[in-house]
């Protein structure tokens, strides 16, 4: 098994490079072109009104970003286009995000964007136009077997690894994916230095960390503007009312700040969100140890290759920048059942769980229910 080597490709590919306007995607496109591939750059217009997304040089979804991407393509010397995927993005990412919060779940829009936009809508269009692969600036790597099958693995630089948000890709999608930044130990400082050597103006452009379609970073305000305010009760584990809220969608499991509870806990310790019930618009809070999760079930599994058979030992990652934790997992019908060796906290329905076998990404699924050490969620 070998890493697909862009520096010495087995054949010249027609590559569509998704260029966000940030430094990572620009360097990825440059590396693919330097490797001898026939590269075309494309920027995805994801908003019918780009000004409704964040402004400033942040690396995604604004008019400035499309211009930065175009300038980078000019320097690299590749054709460049802007493709309008605003309708698909609104339906598959933004509306899904709002609906998940409305249902009391905590979604990951970046993961959904990779699944529905970059490696579904974009890839399907690319293949229809005769391209062989889509290239992105993600930090991950694809390993190629002698039989032609592929595996998704963590990036060599664990500090920049983004395999978690790529765990939704299936083997067909991996067969048409290029990640030029993930196959060498490359730090972000080195990427910026490389961009500068290549004459790319995005070399010093700040990274994007927020949700691209929430302009000011105020998730609660964004949701309230679409769902409206809906006052409800904040209660403790016994059901006693402690305060009120203006919308259960504004809370996530494990949240500590902004609870607006006037009555202190009997033990004087902080309280955390334990449960969100959209049915009666109630938020339940309690002590931190009540967040300890020992097991979970997850739905809609997607496998980066063949689905695992029987129960197995893996490590799991529960958030984009979270640590790995040892688990045992088994696919029962269409449901993934996972038990943790040690309790974990901050696990919420709607989040993705990604399973790993060493550095290999086995697959991902959406958390549906959790079992806690002290109570069932």
From TrEMBL:
Give residues annotated as binding ATP: 18-25, 44, 137
Which UniProt keywords are present, listed alphabetically?
A: ATP-binding, Cytoplasm, Disulfide bond, Nucleotide-binding, RNA-binding, Transferase, tRNA processing, tRNA-binding
Location (main, coarse): cytoplasm
Q: Which reaction does it catalyse?
A: S-sulfanyl-L-cysteinyl-[protein] + uridine(34) in tRNA + AH2 + ATP = 2-thiouridine(34) in tRNA + L-cysteinyl-[protein] + A + AMP + diphosphate + H(+)
Give an example GO molecular function: tRNA-uridine 2-sulfurtransferase activity
| Residue ranges, annotated region (Interaction with tRNA) | 160-162
Domain (tRNA-specific 2-thiouridylase MnmA-like central) spans: 221-286
| SUPFAM superfamilies xref list | Adenine nucleotide alpha hydrolases-like
tRNA-specific 2-thiouridylase MnmA-like C-terminal domain span: 294-367
Work out whether the entry's keyword set contains RNA-binding. yes
InterPro entries cross-referenced by the UniProt entry:
MnmA-like, MnmA-like_C, MnmA-like_central, MnmA-like_central_sf, Rossmann-like_a/b/a_fold
EC assignment: the record states: 2.8.1.13
Which cell locations does it reside in? Answer: Cytoplasm
Kindly identify the residues recorded as the active site: 113, 212
Residues the record annotates as the site (Interaction with tRNA) are 138, 351
The role this protein plays is:
Catalyzes the 2-thiolation of uridine at the wobble position (U34) of tRNA, leading to the formation of s(2)U34.
The UniProt similarity line reads:
Belongs to the MnmA/TRMU family.
Quote the protein name from its UniProt record.
Answer: tRNA-specific 2-thiouridylase MnmA
Organism field = Streptomyces monticola
**Annotated gene:** mnmA
């Amino acid at each position: 098994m070998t890493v697909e080597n862009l520096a010495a490709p087995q054949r010249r590919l027609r590559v569509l490079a998704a260029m966000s306007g940030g430094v990572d995607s620009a360097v990825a496109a440059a590396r693919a072109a330097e490797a001898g591939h026939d590269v075309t750059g494309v920027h995805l217009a994801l908003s019918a009104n780009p000004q409704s997304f964040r402004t400033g040089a942040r690396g995604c979804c604004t008019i400035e970003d499309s211009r930065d991407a175009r300038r980078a393509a000019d320097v690299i010397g590749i054709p460049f286009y802007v493709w309008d995927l605003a309708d698909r993005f609104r339906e598959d990412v933004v509306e899904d995000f709002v609906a998940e919060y409305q249902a009391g779940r905590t979604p990951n829009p970046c993961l959904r964007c990779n699944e529905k936009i970059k490696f579904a809508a974009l890839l399907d269009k690319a293949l229809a136009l005769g391209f062989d692969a889509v290239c992105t600036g993600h930090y991950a790597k694809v390993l190629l077997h002698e039989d032609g099958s592929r595996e998704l693995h963590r990036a060599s630089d664990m500090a920049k690894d983004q395999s978690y948000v790529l765990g939704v890709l299936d083997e067909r999608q991996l067969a048409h994916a290029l990640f030029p930044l993930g196959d060498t130990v490359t730090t972000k400082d080195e990427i910026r230095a490389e961009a500068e050597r290549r004459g790319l103006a995005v070399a010093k452009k700040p990274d994007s960390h927020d949700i691209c379609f929430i302009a000011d970073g105020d998730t609660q305000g964004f949701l309230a503007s679409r769902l409206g305010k809906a006052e409800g009760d904040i209660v403790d584990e016994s059901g006693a009312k402690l305060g009120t809220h203006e919308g259960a969608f504004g809370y996530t499991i494990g949240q500590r700040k902004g609870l607006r509870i006037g009555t202190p806990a009997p033990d004087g310790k902080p309280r955390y969100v334990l449960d969100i019930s959209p049915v009666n618009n109630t938020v339940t809070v309690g002590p931190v140890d009540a967040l300890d999760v020992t097991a979970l079930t997850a739905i809609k599994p997607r496998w980066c290759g063949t689905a695992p058979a029987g129960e197995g030992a893996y490590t799991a990652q529960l958030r984009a920048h979270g640590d790995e934790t040892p688990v045992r997992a088994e696919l029962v019908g269409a449901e993934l059942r996972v038990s943790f060796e040690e309790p974990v906290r901050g696990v919420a329905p709607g989040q993705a769980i990604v399973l790993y076998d060493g550095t290999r990404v086995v697959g991902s699924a959406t958390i549906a229910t959790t079992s806690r050490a002290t109570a069932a969620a």
